[in-house]
TrEMBL record:
<keyword id="KW-0533">Nickel</keyword>
<dbReference type="GO" id="GO:0016151">
    <property type="term" value="F:nickel cation binding"/>
</dbReference>
<dbReference type="GO" id="GO:0051604">
    <property type="term" value="P:protein maturation"/>
</dbReference>
<dbReference type="InterPro" id="IPR000688">
    <property type="entry name" value="HypA/HybF"/>
</dbReference>
<dbReference type="Pfam" id="PF01155">
    <property type="entry name" value="HypA"/>
</dbReference>
<keyword id="KW-0479">Metal-binding</keyword>
<dbReference type="GO" id="GO:0008270">
    <property type="term" value="F:zinc ion binding"/>
</dbReference>
<keyword id="KW-0862">Zinc</keyword>
<protein>
    <submittedName>
        <fullName>Hydrogenase maturation nickel metallochaperone HypA</fullName>
    </submittedName>
</protein>
Length: 108
């Protein structure tokens, strides 16, 4: 299992905290053994409503560097699942596991 996220820095989400939570959830079940979380942090970007300039900035300095106008945030607030990759077992392996489960159930 591999999950890829895009997380905007303006969400105030902490990359290490997301990773910790993912590991805490996936470590509980052998089904998720080897699961990976890939996080891409997205820098804030705004477009000036006065002059149209598009610019990157930090959380605290959002005014336009060209004219000092107000910037409308166009990137940096997202929290998006970009992809989920799942490794499916080989069909023969899955059949063998199902047969073993049936044998266990019938012998009980």
């Amino acid at each position: 299992l591999k999950v890829s996220l895009s997380v905007g820095r303006m969400t105030e989400a902490i990359e290490d905290a997301l990773q910790f939570a993912f590991e805490a959830l996936t470590d509980r079940d052998p089904l998720y053994e080897g699961a990976q979380l890939e996080i891409t942090m997205v820098e804030p970007k705004s477009r000036c409503v006065e002059c149209g300039t598009v610019y990157e900035h930090d959380r605290f300095h959002v005014s336009c560097p060209e004219c000092g106008g107000f910037g409308e945030l166009i990137a940096g607030k997202e929290l998006r699942i970009d992809s989920i990759e799942v490794d499916l077992p080989d069909a023969d392996d899955a059949d063998d596991e199902l047969d073993a489960m049936r044998d266990d159930a019938s012998s009980s």
